[in-house]
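Quick one, tokens below:
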């Protein structure tokens, strides 16, 4: 583990130890997996299916290993207005039950949008003379997302390229994902989405559902010098209901796909492989050749947690309304309802794990300071 990554982990642990409400800080790490073996599997499948269509041709040696030298990181930050999910409860302009219904409806949904800070390099491990869609050297192998509280994993999802459908890369330049692992604890989720100290309980909430929307975009230059900018290449969706009967004795939903078995939960969608950008190349004899790059792309992951209220909870709305007003008054006195939130995103290439890591941290602005960014060893942009 390098010093920069160690400093990042220490900074995150410090933030997680701060005495603020759980719903006022959320930190995710999104991992983009790479694999050296995947390219060999694709090449082998291609050879078996059609020996006449191999991945032949010289590769530009002058570029070396394109995965080196990209360890520079980025930090971006922006301010967001503090979420005031209980605003309706401190006014008297509508009927009480309607206020309660509106407040609960808002807090039954939480969404987090995670985006790569810059283009990620590289989808392939080297340049090619064979064309923009040459899959030789393909390294991208899937996406994962992690949320922790201290040393404990509260949410983890992992998807890899479906090895049973590699033929789609050969035939259609498309790939699909398969869900390998999912760990989630509804009681430690971001629901209810409120600054009030209201824990999640299946006695009050039902139909807990985790949804993920993943999109991949890219920009590239073709051989006639036309720029294709921010084109969506593919989109994936995952929807998984979590019921109390599926939880273990610690309140966790755990799913791990066994090797070579179909996944119990389907990942809907597909994506084109990333087009290589055209570039000219002159060899040592000054001969000009057409050449295509290693493929840059961007990633967007929208994580959504949602639920409904139980009939028994709705029947107790008057009692709950009174309790919420007491919590709101206490929160107002403490000043937590007036806080603004800041979101800081950091993108880094992990040389040891051979994967991209996007860290997104959302917390009250006063806890995300320049000192934290300095500990990351980067400049804010």
């Amino acid at each position: 583990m390098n010093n920069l990554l160690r400093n990042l982990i220490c900074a995150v642990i410090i933030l997680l130890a701060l005495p603020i409400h759980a719903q006022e800080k959320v930190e995710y790490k999104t991992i983009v997996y790479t694999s050296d073996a995947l390219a060999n599997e694709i090449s082998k499948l291609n050879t078996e299916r059609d020996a006449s269509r191999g991945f032949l041709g010289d590769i530009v040696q002058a570029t070396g290993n394109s995965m080196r030298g990209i360890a520079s990181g980025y930090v971006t930050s922006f301010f967001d207005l503090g979420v005031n999910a209980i605003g309706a409860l401190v006014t008297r302009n509508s009927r009480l039950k309607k206020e309660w219904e509106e407040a609960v409806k808002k807090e039954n949904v939480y969404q987090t949008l995670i985006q790569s800070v810059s283009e990620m390099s590289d989808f392939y491990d080297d340049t090619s003379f064979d064309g923009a869609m040459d899959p030789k050297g393909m390294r991208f192998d899937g996406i994962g997302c992690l949320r922790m509280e201290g040393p404990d994993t509260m949410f983890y999802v992992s998807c890899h390229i479906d090895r049973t459908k590699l033929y789609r890369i050969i035939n259609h330049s498309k790939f699909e994902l398969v869900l390998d692992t999912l760990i989630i604890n509804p009681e430690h989720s971001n629901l209810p989405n409120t600054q009030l100290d209201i824990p999640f309980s299946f006695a009050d909430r039902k139909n807990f559902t985790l949804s993920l929307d993943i999109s991949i975009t890219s920009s590239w230059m073709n051989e006639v010098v036309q720029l294709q900018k921010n084109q969506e290449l593919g989109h994936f969706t995952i929807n998984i209901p979590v019921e109390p009967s599926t939880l273990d004795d610690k309140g966790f939903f755990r799913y791990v796909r066994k090797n070579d078995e179909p996944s119990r939960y389907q990942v809907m969608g597909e994506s084109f492989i990333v087009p290589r950008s055209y570039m000219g190349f002159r060899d040592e004899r000054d001969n000009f050749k057409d050449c295509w790059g290693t493929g840059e792309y961007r990633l967007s992951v929208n994580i959504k947690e949602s639920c409904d209220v139980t009939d028994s909870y709705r029947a107790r709305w008057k009692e709950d309304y009174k309790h919420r007003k007491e919590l709101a008054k206490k929160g107002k006195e403490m000043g937590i309802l007036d806080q603004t939130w800041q979101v800081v995103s950091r993108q880094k290439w992990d040389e040891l794990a051979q994967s991209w890591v996007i860290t997104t941290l959302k917390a009250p602005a006063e806890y995300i300071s320049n000192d934290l960014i300095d500990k990351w060893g980067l400049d804010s942009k």
